[in-house]
Every structure is written in structure tokens, then in C-alpha cells.
Predict the structure of SAM-dependent methyltransferase.
Amino acid sequence: MPGASTNSQASARKPVDGPFHGKTDAGAIVSEAKDSETISFYSNEAEAYTTRGVAASNRQLHAFMARLPSGGRVLELGCGAGQDSQAMLAEGFDVTPSDGTPEMAAAAARRLGRAVKVLLFEDIEETDAYDGVWANACLLHVPRAHLAGIIARVQRALRPRGVFYASFKAGEAEGRDRFGRYYNYPSPDWLADAYGDRGWKGQIEITSRKGSGYDGLPTDWLYVFATKA
């Protein structure tokens, strides 16, 4: 396991009551790197989800941009409404916004006035292409068995010293929320294992903060920064 800097208090690994709503067997029904029920939610709810007036992820986004070279090339995964890409474009970064759901990508394109790539995480194929990859609240939908492989794809797509940011909803066992969306719900230790100890410069930084999500329920968020060696 790599060294992980964290201010989270991880508990013993066990299923957690609350966000799972009785569905803790997600691993048995999700065999691919994507989950059809989750994708269907975002397809059907794209308009409501992207017009709810959510601001850019200011604190973490500013920390991410501060680590990038001026005008650096950035890939945003799971861009949703496109507000984070919009903020990065305004700061002069060369941003490629993407989302795995065509309906969400179309909504972001209307906001940004530019094409938004429809990209599934497992289809990331580039090598040494980006100074940064921004994945806010999207890799949390990757089935646990596939997360390490997706992270490896992101690492490969980064240039040396490239910065990777992702956020996750903390937990101890995968499951679904009341909308049927799959979540991997990792602990800090589990997440550090998924990132691995090869190819990163220094420690994987994992911090936590209480907040909420689209469902309005209290959430312990995990914020992860990693820099490619």
C-alpha cells in the first residue's frame, strides 16, 4: 500500500447502514467497469441534474489548478453540467470536457458552447497527454473490482508530474443510493490500495470533509490528489 496522507478517521471494514438502503450486494450484479442502472439515471435525469444551479467545486478546484502549469492541458471526466470545465477554461487552461452519458455531454456542450466528448472511463486510451485529470464525483460510480484499472488508465494518460484529482463518498462496502445509482463507497485505506504504490510521486493525499450530494443526505467526502512521477 502506498503512503497516504489523510485526515480521515477510518473505522474497521464492515457494511455501513445508511446509503445502501438494503442493497449491499452490488458487487454480485456489476461485472463491468460501468453500471447500466447508474448510466440510465443520468440519461433520464440529465436536464434536472444539470440545471440545479450547482456552482463549480471551488476549494478543491482551486487547489487543483494551482498545481498545474499555466495553460496546461486538462481532461475532465464526468463533467456533468460543465461548471468545473467552464471555471478552468476561464483561467486559461486547455480543457477537454467529457462525460460517459450522451445526454449529460449534450447539456454541458450547451453550457460551454463547445463539443463535449462522450467518454467512458474504460475507453481512456491516451498516453502522456494531459497535465491534469479532474474527476470530481464520478469515479465513485466505478465498480470496486475495476477501479484500480481505471486509475491506471488515468495515470498513463497523464504527463510526468501530471496531477490527478478525484472525489469519492466514503464507506466500507459498495452499494446503491435511493435513486439506484451504484457507489463504490471506499474507506481511505481501501482507496490508497486501489491507487497502488507505483508511478506516483510522493504520497497519495487523501483528505475528508462532511457534505452532501444530489440525494441531500449527509456525506463524508474523500478528496484524493495524486501526482505522476
